[in-house]
Amino acid sequence: MNHFHVYLVEDEKNLAEVIKAYMEKEGWKVKHFSDGKEAAEHIDSSPHLWVLDIMLPGMDGYQLLKAIKSRNDTPVIFISARDKDLDRVLGLELGSDDYLAKPFLPEELVIRAKKLLERIYKNDVQAPEQFTLNGYTIDPNGRTVKDGNEPIELTTKEMDLVILLTSNISKSLSREEIIEYVWGSDYYGSERAVDDVVRRVRKKLPRIHVETLYGYGYRVLSS
Questions:
Q1: Where in the sequence is 4-aspartylphosphate found (predicted)?
Q2: Is 105 helix (H, G, I), strand (E, B) or coil?
Q3: Is residue 27 packed enough to be buried (19+ CB in 10 Å), middle (13-18) or exposed (0-12)?
Q4: How are the residues of the chain apportioned to helix, strand and coil, as percentages rounded to the nearest 5?
């Protein structure tokens, strides 16, 4: 996939125009917001990536990041003129995936965004064709799951987990394998994050039998 949708939230008009131009050269569709509160109204549109400034009118970047992560797991890159360790750490703790201090070269932001998008959406290229499992229609390439004709809303990580488990029916997958696939090799958080995503997937897709392999990981059974 290279037709990514990026939401850019930056109140410096000139900088926003430069970033937008560089990203559009990659074939990405970029929607620009100059106000945090206005951007928050579009969270449910679920772009592939958010790029947020911290200092914004209406709603600051921290508040917007919290709102995004409370609704879905879309990746976020923070950009800020405040190159302080506290800002960087707070952003990462709240769930941002990267942090870039101003001034920066637009090319560097694009490179970081590209690597992040390729890692998170890598399954779009590698995934199998659409298939059905226990009444659910799973389309890994389109990243959708339907119950009949009704689409089921899944976060990025929930969808990645569904793709991994249902593409490996009856195969035992360790927590380490799941983390590598869903979060990437640079993830250093708790393995309990796997259990949390599994819990949410079970709730949203109750007919998919995700079996717990105690002390090891998980697997999906065919029925």
A1: 53
A2: coil
A3: exposed
A4: 40, 20, 35
Q: Residue type for 9, please?
A: V
Tell me which amino acid residue 95 is.
Answer: G
Q: Whole-model pTM above 0.70?
A: no
pLDDT digits (tens, 9 = 90+) for 158-170: 998 999 999 888 9
For residue 60, which amino acid is it? D
DSSP letter at 95?
A: T
Length of the chain: 223
Locate tokens 């997958």: which residue?
173
Token reading at 60:
């600051």
CB 46, CB 130: distance < 8 Å: no
pLDDT of residue 125: 44
Beta bridge partners of 78: 52, 99
